[in-house]
Amino acid sequence: MIKQLFVLVLFVIVTQVELSAQEFRVLVSAFVDKVPISQFGEAGLENVTVNSDQNNIFRYFIGNYKSRDDAERAKKDAVKKGYMNAQIIDMEEQRALCGTPCPYISQSSMFISSSTEKIYLRSIQFDYEKTVIKPEAGKELDHLFDIMSEHSDYLVQLIGHTEGKNKDDIQMAISMRRLRTVRNYLISKGIPAHKIKSRVITKQEGEVEDKKNERLVVIALINAKGELMQDMITR
To answer: 40-84 pLDDT, tens per residue?
Structure first.
């Protein structure tokens, strides 16, 4: 009986510790280009921090909240002040799903996964030194077209990765061709060319990057301000 009581007390203590260890942040907004922190201060949001990943996606956060209720109040305040895509990030959930490489935790490592991302980011995988769109990638792009058809104000940012340093480099040329292939596919579906932006990110000297990143074209769904949209899309 005493042993059972001890186990029960220990369980309650551990549960309380786990609950007290909860951590939430509010993702105020994410942009494909860096914006000044002062922009948020002018809107009435203080203590905004920023990090970026290897896609050069800039995420702006407020708070380290110990309860979801506190985070929810902060999110509603951000929405009221004009940041309609603000959302709560459960840091423990992120750590459990992908560990420290998550862009919501790390400031350097890229992690692309619809199961952990809270903004619309997708990746199209190509075979080594190939530029042909695979059938599964075609389905992803078709789905993107459906979204764009329903939201005429949305834009697409395509992001490529390469070790190449200039346009004459073979790796740079392959990356550019992949971007053009994806762009042309979307145009052929009916997305206007002026709604599709492209850029290539080159690996910096001394930077360690997963080789498979070079075979990706990353797709970001943005508005006219370059702000990434929430990933509320079901497949």
So the answer is: 999 999 999 998 887 889 999 998 899 999 999 999 999 999 999
Q: What is the DSSP pairing of strand 155-162 with strand 196-202?
A: parallel
Question: What's the alpha-carbon Rg for the chain, to the nearest Å?
Answer: 21
Q: Class assignment of domain 22-113?
A: alpha beta
- Distance (Å, rounded) from C-alpha 157 to C-alpha 113? 17
30 and 92 Cβ atoms separated by less than 8 Å: no
- Nearest CA to 164 out of 174, 178, 154, 149 is that of 174
Q: Which residue has the tokens 């052929």?
A: 188
Q: List the domain boundaries for the chain.
A: 22-113, 121-222
Please write the tens of the pLDDT for every residue from 161-219.
Answer: 887 666 667 888 899 999 999 999 999 999 999 999 999 988 764 454 555 566 889 99
**CA 77 to each of CA 47, 50, 81, 117: distance values in angstroms, whole numbers, following the listed order:** 14, 18, 6, 22
Tell me the CATH architecture of domain 121-222.
2-Layer Sandwich (3.30)
